[in-house]
Amino acid sequence: MPEIEVIRSPRRTRTVQARFVDGRVVVRIPARMTAAEEQAAVASIVTKLQKKSASTRISDESLEERARVLNASVLDGRARLGSIRWVSNQHNRWGSCTTATGDIRITDRLKNVPGYVLDAVIVHELTHTFIPGHGPDFWDWADRAPKAERAKGYLEALQRLG
Q1: For residues 10 and 66, what is the distance between their CA atoms, to the nearest angstrom?
Q2: In terms of pTM, does the model score above 0.90?
Q3: What are the YgjP-like metallopeptidase domain coordinates in residue numbering (predicted)?
């Protein structure tokens, strides 16, 4: 069970909201709630969030299939994919690629982002398997990901949130 942080908001009058932030669950509730109401609301919303998250999380196997489809459809099959999997030890980057083997690692901080954001990161890392560095040729290929510019903005905002 992840750590739960409850924030009481004087502006919130009825609704309760929960989301994952840096491995913990942040729950926002109306400030006027009693302790008993808070306990019931938090238990309910955290259960819903965990069920939703479990059903939408992408397995390593699904990640590999996604990468294969993106390689074929976006990169014309140019990338050499060794393996791709989620990792929990990347805190300063979204993904990494070992160019010699084509092995790709994606931070598990991206498990709950919209699909187009994950796709852009995967395409970015796949592009590294045939173009090292971040020169103009690299970006010509990496920016072919669907909604690439929008994904960059999303990731920039996510990074600023910490």
Answers
A1: 43
A2: no
A3: 87-155
